[in-house]
Amino acid sequence: MDQIAEYGPRVSGALGTVLSAKGQLEGGANSDRALRYRARQLERNAGQEVAASTMAAQEEQRKSALITSRAIAVAAASGGNTLDPTVLRILQGISAEGELASATQLYNGQERARGLKEQATADRYEGKMYRTAGRKKALGTLLTGVTSIANTWGSDSDKPGGVFSEGTKQVDYDGRNTG
Q1: pLDDT in tens, 94-105
Q2: Quick one: CA torsion of 73, 79, 83, 85, rounded to 10 degrees?
Q3: How many domains does the chain have?
């Protein structure tokens, strides 16, 4: 019973240290996994942004072609010549506006995608930092626990190196009988 009273706190302290260190390792690893998952989602979203902006750009080109067609029809219906310099300038303006709108859609989609990819890269980096921090915290916890256990183990005697009981006789760490 004396051994339980003597060694119980030390054993439970050691187990607590190990469990705490394991929890810190797992916490860092879990954060890393969650951030890597989020990074994959962001990259998927970036691809969808590019696809959506491509479709929007094509829609702008389609609208420009419809407006150009309508302008030609109106010019012809009014008795004007579609090769008239004024009509040609209007048609060129419509075409230029359509190209600009289309290019703007593509650019905006690519910029949104770039931002999402940069965030994904940052998330991966942050995950690695959490994993590293978890390892360092776990190591610190283990070292603190080992130091604490070593200090309490050696505090039973005023002799250097400490004394522990072996049955009813006490011996020091070198095996010499101390009592």
Answers
A1: 999 999 999 999
A2: -110
A3: 1
